[in-house]
Structures
1.
Amino acid sequence: MQAPLGEFEVVVLMSVLHLSQDANGSAVRNDIEQRIGRKVSRGSVYVTLDRLEEKGLLSSRVIEAPTVRGGARRLFRATASGVRAVRHALSTIERMRKGLEPLLGDR
Amino acid sequence: MSDLLWHVIAWRLRRQLPADRVEPVLVDLLEDYEHRLASSRMRSWIWLVQEARSLDAAYRRDRRARGRDWTWPRVESVWRDARLSARSLARTPIVTVAILVTLAAGIGANTAIFAIVNGVLLRPLPYPDESRVVSLTHRSQGSTTDIPSAPYLYFTYRETARSFEQIGLWRTGTATVTGFDRPEEVQALFVTHEILSILGVPPAHGRTFSARDDAPTSDLTVVLTWGYWQRRFGGDESVIGRTITISGMDGVVIGILPQTFTFLDRPVDVIYPFQLDPAQVTLGRYVFSSLARLKPGVTLESATADLASLVPLAIDRFPPPAGYTRDRFAARPVQPHLTPVKEEVIGDIGRMLWIAMGALGVVLIIACANVAHLLLVRTDGRREEDAIRVALGASRARIVTSLLVEGGMLGVAGGLAGLIVAYSVLAVVLALGPENLPRAGDIRIDPFVLAVALAISLAAGAWLGLLPLVRVRDARLASSLGNGRTIGVGKDRQRTRGTLVIVQVALALVLLIASGLMIRTFQTLTHIEPGFVRPEEVQLLYVAGRLADPDLTTQTQRNIIEAIAAIPGVASVSFNDRAPLGPDNQGSDTVLTAEGSIVPRVEGQPRPLRRFEFITPGYFQVLGTPMLAGRDLTWADLDGHRHVAIVSAELARQEWGSTAAAIGKRVQVTPADAWREVVGVAGDVRDNGLHEPAPPIVYFPARVGRFWGAPVMTFANGTYLVRSPRAGTEQLLREIDRAVAGVNPNVPISQTRRLSDVYRGSLARTSFTMTLLLVAGAMGLLLGVIGIYGVVAHGVAQRTREIGIRLALGAKPAEITRLFLRRGFALASTGLVAGLLAAVLLTRFMTAVLAGVSPLDALTYVAVALVVLMVATAAAYVPARRATRRSRTQTLLRL
């Protein structure tokens, strides 16, 4: 199995899953900022997207977008292994969480 | 404004982000930026800059983490690498010192030889636009010997040649400056007025010659060189305009040349014009050297063709000399020949220097191979360290950088030490070098040489630093991190080391064969009969004794000879207008008509040139040259200017077939002269140098009648030869001086030297090359031997456990020794074969400097091969032998 994902990598993957078809870099970043309520740096988002693609957890394609000056836009989408990786990460956290309710509270 | 900002940001990001990802990132950024601008949020430009910076930083961090690109190492990390390297080198002081010494020797020797090559061959002569200055000689048809130029050609070329800015004639000689306490013999340069402006060096004071100064009716003008001006006139500027007496003539000093001026590397004190009279010029008289300056853009070929077309014109223009017809000249017109003036100065020493440089370059390669081997011993520990660093996240780029830093440090340190070596080597070479090493004053370590030395150091350092990388690339990290002691040794590691040693042995072999060939050449030359005996007893001195009256000249000559002969300890004295083996022996020889000659006379074929020498009686006795037939000259022959001559054995053989047949035959110089009877045949003297065969020589008395169209001619400007066991001593010279002054105090003496010095000088070039190659070869062999020892010793050390186990299992020590010996022997013999092949291919370039031995001389090859094989095997035997003794105890201790 691969090396485990970092926290931010999981967050970015999940954002891509949320956005399903329209996941470009800006959209992912805005989505994350909205959901977790904290500012996220543009650079770290793009670099993480590239790295996830290298690991084979994302795939990307470039489409023409004539409405935008410059034209080409890169859209990301999760691969099957990407979905598996998210599931695996979440289940790992869940298993670790079991038994810590008194300390961590229910929220 | 926002547009401009966007373009700057986009340009910057395009440079920082990977090319295949950057465009969509920019598209997203631009879209967001335009949204912000549209919603007129204040200061969107700050936002844009911040976003761009975040992209920039994130991608740079990412790139570094991957180690994908090689970015310039930061200064602190280079400094850290340097300190670490220095510390680790200091921990193994012996190896480090060995490395530095080897590098210093290799780099230093190469720097020294490059300084020599630079000074002599590469740097241009100190004349402006020196590539356009050419030396003009002529050749008769079908011959490759250079004849000097002649006045009839000069005057014609001067007026009608289109390819040249100027042409001039020159000649060196001596002159006597009188008017001071003692007459002084000085080095004189006689010129036509164009020569100094052809060289293009402006005078430091006063002026140089104009066409008027060269006219035969003008007063004599003189130009002095800086050195003579300082020596004789103390640098006094008022000497300009003063009249001095040169060779009996009054000349006005008109100018001083600057300190940097040299005339083609010859010593010159005074310069004055020939003042040739065109009305008195006849055909022939090829006795003047010639220089010319080409017009810009003219090639040598077109200039040569230009001159060649003018030769027939010249022959038509001027009258033939007395006793000759114009047809004789027209039938065989001479061919002009141009060479760049630098080649004229350098002569044939260029080839020798390039050989020497090649040899030392080879030594440097051997030295680098040795150092590489020493460093490889360190890499074994290095590999573990590097493996750990890679595992801890160091990029390969960082490791490469640190290796380069270590190699660079070693290279530069070796280079600095090498500079010390270079200065010392140069000092020794310049002190001992051959006297005819041209432009010795130009040899020094100037900024260009230093730059080359630095380049060599860095190149050596880079190569040494990167050599371990050859294997780091496919290093199997796991096996390196694991047990450092493996039972077997990596095959590829052994192979690289083995290859280095083979290369070393091969190169050493080539160098030693080359030096062996030079040794045999030297032996051949020293065993050549020069034609004289015990040259250390013969004192030579140059005397300009010609006076206006021929009778007085001959009488003075005889008196001088008798006065010197009267000195106690002097066995014999004589005179020759040319010194044996002397530097002026490239002068013009003349044709001779021999009666009854066996040489077939073919119409239109040029007659061979014969050397003329004018001597007094007893000449052969002084030299120790045997008289093979007939008799020597007597004073009666001179006083009565009898028509007699003596020939050398070689001439006798060429003209009449044998020495005995020569006696009684008659020879004639020009058709208007008297026929002269051959009264004696002398043994051959190698007057053209030891490399050349003995030339055919005719000896005439120093006083001749009806010669060259003149009723009487005397020859009293030349060399006196004195045989005495006290030759060369200060005392003898003083006594000779006194004896000559007692006859005529106005006759100065110069160029005192012994015949043995001249003889040794003619060997000098060969012995210089031989010494250089021998030293290089010995160094190469020593380094090769160290290499073999190192390889075998290292192999033994690596396999200590294996050896111990084998011994414990019952192997005999001799078997173990033989095992390692075989490896060393295999390396040595492979190197031997490679070296022999290389030598066969390379020595053919040496044919020009060899004499009496072929470049494929079997004796030399076999002898050197045996020596190298023996030495190399011994080098392998020692560690192989020690292997068994150490391993047994070591293994017992460890197990």
2.
Amino acid sequence: MVYKPNIPQSNDFISQSQQDMIANFGDVHKFYGLPSLNDGDHVPFTEGDDDLKGKHKKLTLIEQGAAPATGANEMAVYTKDVGGSPEIFVREESSGDEIQMTGGGLINMNGLVLRAHVIFDVEGNIIEREILDENDEIQRVPISHNVSDVTATKTMVGSVVTDIKWKVTFETAMPDANYFWNVTSFNFSTFSGSITFIRQVQPANNAAYGDTVKTTDFTVQGITNTLGNDYPRTFERILVSIYTLV
Amino acid sequence: MFDPNIPQPRDLLSNSQGDLLTNFQQLNTQFGVNHVPFDDASADKGKHKFVTIVEQSNDPETNVDEQIIYSKDDGGQPELFARPQNNGTPYRMTKDGAFFTGITPAVAVNFDGAGAIRGTALNVTSVTNPSVGRYVINFTNPLPDNNYYWHVSGFDNSGNPVISQVRNNGTYGTVVQTGLLDVTFKNQNNTLITGLVGAVVICWRVQ
């Protein structure tokens, strides 16, 4: 039964008003919120715990056609379509600027979204860190996001490694290959008085851009003029992060 | 106006009728400001259209297993804050018209050896190539100052290291400007390279 805001009328019989009012109270109770998570956004009016009454379980934001107006000293949180999907926005006071909070399932860092990151060692093993789970037990989790694998490819001359590349493969492909990368590394170095050592990790040298930078993976290379006998200590930690525009 | 104290046991029915009518109307109208109203015909009844957050003078309290989002005055305008459970330390969500992440990207560009921009850049009007191995990233909107973070990375097809850096033969203020960043790509012999295949420059500023 649909909520009736215009009852009771002055000439309604009490018997009719009783039905209308009980139906209205039922609708308010039902659509404001019921105990289960997926029935309404609010803690129910019938909640037994006074500390919870009046609060939200969750916020379901129906996509708006335009940014809502805001008055002085207030802000608004809402969703609006961006490229076919609703994204969360915030609007400043006095119908001011809109701030896009999300983009493509990611948090918008004011123009860029972090699409992938990984820390790995010279063998391509993704480094793990320890966290406490909900049972306060230690779990080891990889320091990575959206990276399924890092594959090390070594070039050998005899038993000596003379070149090394790492292919960082994404779990979910990038929208295109025009993304931004950040590559850095910790390189072990020894110095001799007569030899200049240069060691760094950089995007893999290739004639074609598309051989290094792909939507499915990104290849980096350990570049040094003296890889040889110092392997595997030469490149101890390699850090890669990938960004795109929102 | 909504009256929570009706009907009283001594109220005349004729008065109660008006009071009840007003209350039901107000429930629906006030609820409908931020929510899909109770008398909406769709299945979206009860959901939020948008949430208007009125500026608070203090940080509201939180109990265990809950977080809150609210707004508070900061420098004369409301900003969004969040507070963790058990009256945890509030943290900022917005600042000066932007999502607050502490450090925010200000410039990002991917370009080829000719300085042509690949795809769409963030706050970059052009990349010029004034001489071999040297590129100038020209910002669309200048940064507040020249104390920002940068990352420069490029590669070629030489098999040699490509040293990607801000140009190191000028003063800081000529190379790192509010409106541009001057970068070079050299090989291991400190020679500017000719065959840059691809490069990325990202700049971050503190919020």
3.
Amino acid sequence: MNRRNYGIIFEENARSLFPLVNDKLLTKERLDECGIPYPPVYAIFEDISEARRVRRVLDRFPTGALKPACGHGGGGILILRGPAEGGYQAAGGVMSLAELEQHLAQILLGVYSLGGGHDAAFLEQLLVNDPALERFELTGVADIRVIVHRGEPVMAMLRLPTVASRGRANLHAGALGVGVDLATGLTRNGWLRRQPTAVHPDSGAPLAGFEIPTFSTILELSRRCYQAVPMGYMGVDIVLDASLGPVVIELNGRPGLEIQLANDQSLGDALQLASVATSSGRGLP
Amino acid sequence: MFTENPYQRRARRVVWILLGVVVLAMGARIAILGQDLRVLVPELHYYVDVTIDVGANGEAVDVRMALPSDDERQSIRSESISSGEMRYSMERRGPNRFAQFSHAALRGEADIGYTFSASTEQVRYEIDPRLEIGPTVPTAVQRYLLPERLIQSNTPAIREQLGRIIPPAERRIGPILSAIYHYAHEGIAALPLRGTTDALTALELREASCGGKSRLFVALARAAGIPARIVGGLILNVGGKRSSHLWAEAWVRGRWVPYCTLNGYEAVIPAHYLVLYRGDESLFEHTRDIRFRHFFKIKERLVPPEEALARLTRRPWNMLDLAGTFRQAHISLELLKMILMLPVGALLVAFFRNILGVPAFGTFMPALLALGFRETGLFWGLILLSSVLAVAWAVRRLLGPLRLMQIPRLMILLTVVIAWMLFLGDVGIHLGMLQITAISLFPIVILSLTAERFCGQIDERGSLHAFTTMAYSYVSIAACYGAMSSFALQSLVLAFPETLLIGVALAVLIGSATGLRVAELLRFGRLLRVGRPQHKLPTLETRGGTLS
């Protein structure tokens, strides 16, 4: 972990770029400028005085994901699936308008962001898993994380939500990480809470040997993200949406190390291989 | 579909209950304590700390210091003398008290300390315009008609000047004193304190400091046949200094009427003037050729009124008197005040953040900083804070090339910040500017924490964001400081601690849907977007779309 901290990031990542990846709205602006696809945003809430606007926004856009702009680890995110008896349908049940306003107010007061006492919030389009992922019988939206080193993908991982992770694809929350071979786009075995596993815990579906659709596009998108935000060492999170195709949902300046476990390969080695490959002018194996 | 928020009804009910409790408690307190209500309202006193450093090389050392005395408009309490190695004795001479410190053979340094608490009043005198100078004065004050070494009231120059400013037939005391006062005040230019000036020199040069002007006043008054004398004292303003002050007083039918010819007080002594001695003595006298340095440190203090308090301790219900109870436990009133005012500051922070949308680092940082600025005052506190943040930012940049990890980096930052504050404190003491000496523990801790959060914010959101958040925080800090240092509010909360429940009620309102509604009405947050990252991302809402 420490080697990741000072060995890699501090060599590669300019501090001035961190605000660009920490604030998801600024990230989307940059992606927009570079023509990289991302989930469209319905509305932005800038400060506490806009908390009550949520009702009017939801009248126009009944479904969506309400997210803090500078949130991390999935904290504060509300998945809203339209009006229901007494309020709105959220992940854990029905939320009243009052509760919704309070939650949005909390986001805007910076509760889910790191310090500063202030944050913006936004409502973006709900994403739906590509039909190819149906075999895993997922309860949430899966994503693919690609570690990009100086513009070249060096490792990738498919993150599958579980019931335990309450639909979130975050490994810290209990999701499943499945290693992916960069050359073929085929999955290998998975890791769940630091234990290797061959099947998805809820559906029992086997993990290895699944070919990720449009994988070359995914790799290409992650390369283009380096053009957009030139961080030497970065994690690109991409979702395969049923209608939008591959979209970049987030960039990470400090991607976690679990990807090594999922791929059964050390990042240090992968980076070595990558620099050898690029310096010799050959593509990655 | 969405009618009134049910939580709002609950919130409102809680607010009414709280207000009811407040009214009951206040009523009970007033009813039981009756006329002794005054005991709950503390008085504003000055707390003076005099320090003297004496140094010698083995010779005998004597130091004499004038001590203030009680009179009709000032009372001195809680005196304490620490004489260290020196021997201490006290003597009274006429209207004055003197402390005497002596050492048979002082080698090196000795410290003398004298602290006291003073409460003062302003007194204004009106001289009956018909009063005339009488043929004789009582024996007791006759010496104040005589010339002295520095008050040359019998010289031709003084008499001539008197003749110039007073019409020859004038016998009335009021107009005579007024003319002398105006001459000494306006006719003689003011100079900063510079040694000892006698009356004649002041007259010749037409310029003098407070000593010269006052002696000239006294000389002219004596020449006119009105007993007059010098008064030495201290001007009580919060902070630190070395200089004392001189003014004069004239004897009119049994009363000594004050005149300050430097600062312009005619027949009035303001509340912040403390009398130290009367007559042309000196504040300090000491053996020649020794090292001698003195310093006055003055603070304001809230003190429970003595007489009312004494009466109250005999009553059975005195546990309602918070100040008295704490005093018995030897917990200082200052600490109590701090504890009670913090919720006030926190409430203001809640208002600023939740209603106005003014951000801050850490939840109640503005209130804690305001508390930390008690010793320095708001202006110098903010200067101190700005300097600490600038130092923190510079350290962060310097450490950049080292690529250190966050927590050790913060430890270095903390060390530098503390070193900086100690350095400023040292400079402050030497320059006599107590305002930048926030050495006590609480301000150091809170300033260091703020610097740490500030640097954390730079990491997370960039320098511009951190600096603008800090700038907005200054507004909250100023508001908290204003409320928390308000004497009226402090007295109210100290007398009726249940009023803090009003703050709780307000917090309930701010935190409920009412708060959101008010925030929406005020829309203050819009103004604050200057300097923050503007989110210019095109959204479906702004493009006029809807979900298909």
4.
Amino acid sequence: MSLNSTPLKELRQVKGDAFSNKTITSIFIGILVIVATFLSLSFSRVIEMFVVEQRVTGETSTFVRDMQLTLWGTMFILAVLMYFFIRAIYRHQEQLLSKKLEEKAMDEAILESIGEGMIATDGSGNIIAINNAAEDMLGWSGEDIIGKNFIDVVPATDDSGEYIPKEKRAISYVLINSMKAIPDSIHYVAMPEEVQYVRKDGTHIPISATMNPIILNKILIGAVGILRDVSREKELEETRRDLLSLASHQLRTPLSGVKWLIETLKKGLKGPLNKEQEEYLDEIYKINDRMNSLVQDMLSVLRMESGVTPIKKDNVSTKVIFDAINEILGAAASGRNITLHFSDEHFTIETDATFLRNILESFVSNAITYSPNDTAVYISVRKSPTELVFAVKDSGIGIPPDEQSRLFERFYRASNAKTFNTHGTGLGLYIAGFLAKKIGAHITFETEVNKGSTFYVHIPQH
Amino acid sequence: MNHILIVEDEEFLVRALKDNLTTEKYSVSVAMDGEAVFDELKKKKPDLILLDLMLPKKNGFDVLKEVRQSPEWQLIPVIILSNLGEDSEIKRALDLGANDYFVKSQHPIQEIIEKVSEYLKGEHTQKLHS
């Protein structure tokens, strides 16, 4: 496989390589000549001295002849040694080169066999290599794109069509921040981006890319990007979203119908009701509400699992979250004479407010459900150097030790929970655990049967 | 007397809404698909529209868009009553010019009736499609 016909297109010039063999040989011969010249000059001086001495003493000396013989003999031996030396170096070079070509051929074969696109750039972001898959994805041929700056030539937009500024592109981040990281640590700075790349013909292609720095001897020499075409995934996502919408609507509609029709009857709009009729209606209403909660939870799970809801990151005050929880669950708590105590100290936290609130709602709702009447639930937050920890403490039924490991499983309900309250869906903690993972938080708990439980959610803060 | 247009394709929901609204002494007309809406609008101009989003023939979003684009109807308060609950869908409806949004299965009907009377009393500023 010659370099000219490789599927992997790259710049032919490789800077700072070893000198060619011709150059080495020429240099050695040059040195030899210079040394020989100097030697013979020195020897000429010495010979002159002996010629003069000979003239003076009148004796014929074989010294000059001997010297000349020795000189030429030494030079001959040196030349032979040089020859073998140079030949050995030359052969070694050839071996290295053929090994290098072999490895290169293998790498190229591997790169071409993977379905992903690959581009490599130098330290300024100019493209130095690209494989076939990337050429197809970007709509550029290797010859046309090599040498050009990646960001200039392949702009990116988000899903709504808004262009992503150059400094926000993954490759910019990698090329700039890797330089910062090098002095102290071998800190690997890889950056993903999930965007729409604009192809040469102006069409868009959804790409999931990861950019990595190329570091050699602690110097950043470029970046390499792996590109994945996610068109199919996006289509599937859309189909799921539509399906979810439809399921959501179809399940909720009959439930809302029953709800409203019973409410209408109970208002007396269709005539007065006797006590028993009212009681029956109340029962039907409660059953319907249970179904409603179940559908609500199941749709949440479906939505979460299909990744339909994107995570937002905002600065949010813990007070706002506590107030929301009080508003939503206050009535349920007071209905059983359970007091909700919220801690006073408040902080600002950077996270998805809705997800965090949902997790805490789940905890507080459980605390209320599984506590006896006339008790209290304590909701607090404290700050540590690395995280913010929310706690929800109750004096309820607790969780038996042998059931604690299954607590966050889908549909799992502890045995004492089932006897205490027959209605739960078993999805609350499953959803909470899922949401926590999504926002990079984790959940812990302490519990004692018939004494109570405290659930914690830990949010890392930088 | 205030007149309300109910746009909803489910019979039993129409019934519940109608009965509750007429008790409050409002007059009511009903459209059960996305095209009938405009027939009803032309017959009698309502003071408020209750709009479902999943409708046959033309969906609620498109109806909303057209209503907000028409000079005659763009100032009428529109309350969305839907069972689609995604944030994105709610946002889309509000961006298109809806004044309020209720997920039917999550609110007692009384809440809706009270919100209707608030809007009719003019307690909320009119929202114009931007």
